[in-house]
Amino acid sequence: MFDSLSPQPQDPLLALIGLYNSDTRTDKVDLGVGVFRDETGHTPVMRAVKAAERVLLDTQDSKSYVAPEGDRVFIDLLWTVVGGTDCGKAVAGVQAPGGSGALRLAADLLAKAGKTRVWVGVPTWANHLGIFGSAGLSVQTYPYFDVPSQAVQFDRMTAALESAEAGDAVLLHASCHNPTGAQLTAAQWAVVAEIVARKGLIPLIDSAYQGFGAGLEEDAAGLRTVIAAAAESLVAVSCSKFFGLYRERTGAVYAVGGSQSAVETARSNLVTIARTSYSMPPDHGSAVVRTILATPELKADWIAELNDMRGRLISLRQGLATAIGNHWAGSTAVAGQQGMFSLLPMKEADILALRKDHGIYMPTSGRINIAGLKQADVARVAATFVPLLG
Ligand SMILES: Cc1ncc(COP(=O)(O)O)c(C=O)c1O
């Protein structure tokens, strides 16, 4: 049987990690996989996470099952961060193995409810296509970003959404989740919310980088505008990035709607989907997040460290954009983007040459993770980029 299967290509981003690790140059630079790094290139365990783990070590007295939907206190506390203390809607959530697991539950729920189409922006994360395809949904695309001009194609985006049909799902990237770094303005979020509500579309919002843009509350505004307007929404939340819990596979998916009974029905279906896939989510990461969010001092320290992480990203971004300066017209746009990512107009051959000649590793799409820079790298990386941009 195994021989009848065809070998699958390795995920290009994961393959890039292997290439980077096997490069022996000491001045190599990793702008690939989307993890936060500090100035030493390390992805730290956040202080509040360590403190919460100490609390759990001392107080956790059982490893018995929690509940099919996961830890309800975690689910409810995480929602207060994402949706606010009162979003004006009925909400029911289910814990999930990371943001990707949350997306898969949401996609399976859409399919189970008889929905067939989901609209995604171009560009988007590769795994959106994989997850939605695996769930049996047909993927439609809306234009989002023009790489050469570094501009959001908002008129083209809204025109495409106007052509969607009632009941279609629309994947939206919450703050800083977009691989382009380009955000919608508050006014643009309001326009999207109006279209989604008027046309009866179902927003599926993928949120992973809250706090990496302008601030924890500020970054939730667009998402909250959409869920307030839409009749029903799905929100997939990852704790991988803003709690730094990547390997703990921590997240949740929320059904947001008009009546408690409707969202509870959605929740029961999400639980059934989870039960027949992996039964129950892992507990450790959610217990950490619950402990942090339920303990004011830990929550304050988590936010303080998240603010410092954002400060580092902003400083690196401004440094890179300034160093590129007027050598490339897009540098002003890059300076105005937010979060860890930007998508640069570079040719694949040049990106491969960057790896070989300079030890600078980035995906062939031109998407860079700014957190992979060290302050000392900025001038050298900018100088190697300049002849390749445009
Ligand atoms: C499309 C998408 N959304 C969200 C995430 C969030 O990360 P995680 O699934 O590790 O929580 C990822 C990361 O792989 C992703 O590819």
From TrEMBL:
GO biological process, one term: L-phenylalanine biosynthetic process from chorismate via phenylpyruvate
InterPro entries with a match to the protein in the record: Aminotransferase_I/II_large (IPR004839), Asp_trans (IPR000796), PyrdxlP-dep_Trfase (IPR015424), PyrdxlP-dep_Trfase_major (IPR015421), PyrdxlP-dep_Trfase_small (IPR015422)
Superkingdom, natural source: Bacteria
EC nos: 2.6.1.57
Signal peptide: none
GO molecular function, one term: L-tyrosine-2-oxoglutarate transaminase activity
GO cellular component, one term: cytosol
UniProt domain Aminotransferase class I/classII large: residue ranges: 26-383
Cofactor needs: pyridoxal 5'-phosphate
Matches recorded under CDD domains: AAT_like
Keywords, comma-separated and alphabetical: Aminotransferase, Pyridoxal phosphate, Transferase
Family of the protein in this entry: Belongs to the class-I pyridoxal-phosphate-dependent aminotransferase family.
The protein's assembly and partners: Homodimer.
Protein name: Aromatic-amino-acid transaminase
Organism: Novispirillum itersonii
Lineage: Bacteria, Pseudomonadati, Pseudomonadota, Alphaproteobacteria, Rhodospirillales
